Amino acid sequence: MSVGQTMRDKLTAAFEPSQMELKDESHKHEGHAGHDGRGESHFRLRMVSDAFSGKSRVERQRMVHRVLKEELADRVHALALTLKAPSDVT
Q: Residues of 14-51 as b/e, b for ≥16 C-beta within 10 angstroms?
Protein backbone atom coordinates (compact mmCIF):
# COMPACT_ATOMS: atom_id res chain seq x y z
CA MET A 1 0.00 0.00 0.00
CA SER A 2 1.28 3.48 -0.80
CA VAL A 3 2.27 5.94 1.92
CA GLY A 4 -0.50 8.28 0.78
CA GLN A 5 -3.16 5.57 1.02
CA THR A 6 -1.93 4.52 4.46
CA MET A 7 -2.18 8.14 5.59
CA ARG A 8 -5.71 8.48 4.14
CA ASP A 9 -6.82 5.30 5.90
CA LYS A 10 -5.41 6.38 9.27
CA LEU A 11 -6.86 9.90 9.00
CA THR A 12 -10.28 8.58 7.99
CA ALA A 13 -10.35 6.12 10.89
CA ALA A 14 -9.18 8.70 13.44
CA PHE A 15 -11.17 11.77 12.35
CA GLU A 16 -14.10 10.62 10.19
CA PRO A 17 -13.69 13.76 8.07
CA SER A 18 -16.54 15.31 6.15
CA GLN A 19 -13.95 16.56 3.65
CA MET A 20 -10.39 15.45 3.04
CA GLU A 21 -7.88 16.17 0.33
CA LEU A 22 -4.38 14.74 0.56
CA LYS A 23 -2.01 15.73 -2.22
CA ASP A 24 1.42 14.27 -2.87
CA GLU A 25 3.58 17.28 -3.76
CA SER A 26 6.89 15.43 -3.73
CA HIS A 27 7.56 16.22 -7.38
CA LYS A 28 7.78 19.92 -6.46
CA HIS A 29 10.69 19.21 -4.12
CA GLU A 30 13.07 17.23 -6.31
CA GLY A 31 16.63 18.13 -5.38
CA HIS A 32 15.60 19.63 -2.03
CA ALA A 33 16.25 18.33 1.47
CA GLY A 34 14.05 15.41 2.40
CA HIS A 35 13.49 14.29 -1.18
CA ASP A 36 15.32 10.99 -1.62
CA GLY A 37 13.94 10.06 -5.03
CA ARG A 38 11.43 7.50 -3.72
CA GLY A 39 8.56 9.99 -3.76
CA GLU A 40 5.75 10.29 -1.25
CA SER A 41 7.84 12.54 0.97
CA HIS A 42 5.98 15.87 0.77
CA PHE A 43 2.21 16.15 1.27
CA ARG A 44 -0.48 18.81 1.63
CA LEU A 45 -3.55 17.92 3.70
CA ARG A 46 -6.84 19.81 3.83
CA MET A 47 -9.37 18.26 6.16
CA VAL A 48 -12.67 19.17 7.84
CA SER A 49 -13.73 17.14 10.88
CA ASP A 50 -15.98 17.47 13.92
CA ALA A 51 -12.98 16.25 15.92
CA PHE A 52 -11.41 19.70 15.46
CA SER A 53 -14.33 21.60 17.01
CA GLY A 54 -13.19 23.70 19.94
CA LYS A 55 -9.51 22.98 19.27
CA SER A 56 -6.82 25.53 18.48
CA ARG A 57 -4.77 25.36 15.29
CA VAL A 58 -1.83 23.90 17.22
CA GLU A 59 -4.01 21.30 18.96
CA ARG A 60 -5.41 20.21 15.59
CA GLN A 61 -1.93 19.87 14.14
CA ARG A 62 -0.77 17.83 17.12
CA MET A 63 -3.76 15.50 16.72
CA VAL A 64 -2.83 14.80 13.10
CA HIS A 65 0.86 14.40 13.92
CA ARG A 66 0.02 11.80 16.60
CA VAL A 67 -2.01 9.76 14.10
CA LEU A 68 0.71 9.96 11.44
CA LYS A 69 3.74 9.65 13.74
CA GLU A 70 5.09 6.54 12.00
CA GLU A 71 4.94 8.12 8.54
CA LEU A 72 6.45 11.39 9.79
CA ALA A 73 9.30 9.50 11.47
CA ASP A 74 10.11 7.61 8.28
CA ARG A 75 9.21 8.54 4.74
CA VAL A 76 7.25 11.79 5.07
CA HIS A 77 9.56 14.79 5.28
CA ALA A 78 6.94 17.57 5.07
CA LEU A 79 3.22 17.82 5.74
CA ALA A 80 1.41 21.11 5.15
CA LEU A 81 -1.87 21.23 7.09
CA THR A 82 -5.15 23.08 6.73
CA LEU A 83 -7.45 21.68 9.40
CA LYS A 84 -10.95 22.98 10.04
CA ALA A 85 -14.04 22.21 12.08
CA PRO A 86 -17.35 22.28 10.19
CA SER A 87 -18.18 25.61 11.85
CA ASP A 88 -15.01 27.11 10.29
CA VAL A 89 -16.16 26.36 6.74
CA THR A 90 -18.15 29.09 5.03
A: ebebeeeeeebebeeeeeeeebeeebbbbbebebbbeb
